[in-house]
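Recap from last week: sequence in, structure out.
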Amino acid sequence: MQQSETALQRALEARLASVLGGRVAVSDVEPVSMGASKSIWRFRATPSSGAPLDLVLRADPVENQKPASMAIEAAVLRAAYDQQVPVPEVLDAGDGSEGLGTPYVIMAAVVGETLPQRILRDPETTKRAADLAHELGAAIGGIHRISPGIPGLERIDDVADFEKQYRAGPPSPAMELAWRWLHANRPTAHPSTVVHGDFRHGNIIVADGRLAAVLDWELCHVGDPLEDLGWVTTKAWRFGAPRPVGGFGEVDDLLDGYASVAGWRPAIKDVLWWSIYGSVRWGIMCRRQAARHLDGDEQSLELALIGRRFAENEHDVLVGLGLSDPLPAAAGAGSPEPKPTMFGAPTVDDLLDAAIHQLSVSREYRDRLLISALNVVRREQQLTDRLHDRLDESLAKAGVGSETELAAAIRSGVQITGAVVEAVRTGVQSRLAVWNPKYLGYPAPDDGFRVGREEAFS
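Predicted structure tokens:
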């Protein structure tokens, strides 16, 4: 939304005067997010008679207006509110012709935390973990009770859609294993419901260990209800913590909460299927975001780095299928040895050290991205030869010459032997050794919420 805070303030005052039926003073206008998808502003509205209201404006950027999508989002939010799902109450919504210039929703502000790391560190989350997981399940159950007849809400076969996207890109042996298992073990489809589509950390507000609100409904659609339950238990959304539900909770508590509202309790094995699919889905989404940078549509270091996160999802698939276990980060590559160089000192490592040190004094998000990128460059130039040698050796034992050949063999139905699994695992661990070594050590849940090694491809 490209207008000054003063102009926005005046537009909000005019619109809210019409909505609330009297003069309204708007103050404390503050941008929260100014992305390519949505712009978000916090502000306070004080009616001439009545208490001040803390509100949030969620609006389309002027150059990327989607009035139909915003109208659906507002309608779903109102329907969720009616189903007693914890969501911000919608005060107003429109297509921009009301004076704001772009499609928007104005809703009540909700106090709480959205950053997953802070939620997981909060002692109240630990103390109320079972109750919080139950509340998440109950909220999802409420979402699935919304009438799917909201005008414009699409019915989507999420799995077919994302497999089509995957097949259009380069093959991955780990993802080929995942698709092969997913096709062989897909649970019976459940009656379609309204699905949030992105129910996870980052899109929920937690306050004092309680679910305060569910946010970001732009991926809402009609589909299989287990999609939401699988997404919130996908390993990426545990942020390094061990419990399957957001890193803090147990699946049984999530499903108890769901059953208390939805009236039925899905089988854990079916939720696990959707959770493993969630790792595949997030990997494809990472590639899709990186493509925006690589295709030149949006030059962004952040998007470029997200592309390397594909390896995290490859690893999560193997862990979910019981084909890999967490291991110390150093085991992914070993300690690098200094390479002799004709260029003398300062070496490339010296220059990277100096650049990282220079950036480390800053707290800017941009500089943290630069540090991440420089560390990836350092590890790749240090470890490439060793990792290639290790991968070539494991591929040879599996009887193929490249990971592309390995992926093709898995897709064609080759027997999944120990040598095949080891070759897949070696490639994934090598990529993570460069991209994010600590990810190799993130724990798997110890409550059985993954496929047994002997079951995956028996």
